Amino acid sequence: MNHDDSVSVAELLDERRHLLEVTYWMLGNSREAESVVGEAYRRWYGLSEVERGEISTPRYWLAKTAGGICLGLLAHPRRDATGQRGQREEHHTTTGGAEEVQASLAKEVSRVLLNALDSLSPAERAAFVLNDVFGMASGTVADIVGRPESECVGLADRARRSLRMQRSRSTPPDEHDLLARTVREACVNEDAELLESLLCPDATAFFDGGGKVRALSRPVHGSRRVAHSLLVLLARHPRTTLTTHSVNGRTGLIVRYDHQVAAVISLDIAEHHVAQVWVVLNPDKLRSWNQPPT
């Protein structure tokens, strides 16, 4: 089967945009992202028609191939996607649609966050980006990274802890508690102005749905957008409650729906404002919160 004849132009362009997004987040460099996507497609067309016909989901095959190339680049950053030596420097392409995609990505992905991602190991960065940024299921992440599923879960957890340590300053517990309670008050009262004022201008919110719920598939960046996304998620409902509770040793927020924990929110604080918001919506990760007390 020739897959190229069986899909629409819109689907083909959406597939390419998705690959550019994944590779840009993994590498933080638009020139390298473009090169990796080009190499992934080159390998696709290097297959025979029979081999391509046996691939049921070309988009997944391309994402897996691009992810593998990215891992190789992260491990050997002085080589480009084809294995040639090169320099990792930001470069602007002049290829029309791709340029627009990369420009929008560069605006969406904060330089602060990309610099923080650079400190992670290749496997940690890949696991974090694929799981937290694109909401891929842990089995899919394991397939792309080439590690056991349980190991990929651990890699993503280590990446989150590392990012939190880099961004957060040593905040006294009472200050953290007060800020968390004020965030709750702003959310309960749907006070967008107050909530935005509590966030760093370059705050980032991560939504971990684990592919099990329709959570936002990518991080939200910027105080206004983060505030909006939280208020939409926590919109008033007679069966929904929002309370403060200890989360990872610091005051966080617990969202309950009909007394069932539906989300756990951790807050990382820097310079008296919330720098990062981590929203866990994955039912698998919430099981311990919903177990009856022993």
Automatic annotation (TrEMBL):
Where is the segment annotated Disordered? 80-100
Specify the signal sequence span: none
**InterPro entries registered for this protein in UniProt:** ECF_Sigma-70_Domain, NTF2-like_dom_sf, RNA_pol_sigma_r3/r4-like, WH-like_DNA-bd_sf
Report biased composition (Basic and acidic residues) as residue ranges: 80-93
Lineage, top-rank taxon, reads: Bacteria
Q: Which PANTHER family match?
A: ECF RNA POLYMERASE SIGMA FACTOR SIGI-RELATED, SIGMA 19 FACTOR
What name does this protein carry?
Answer: RNA polymerase subunit sigma
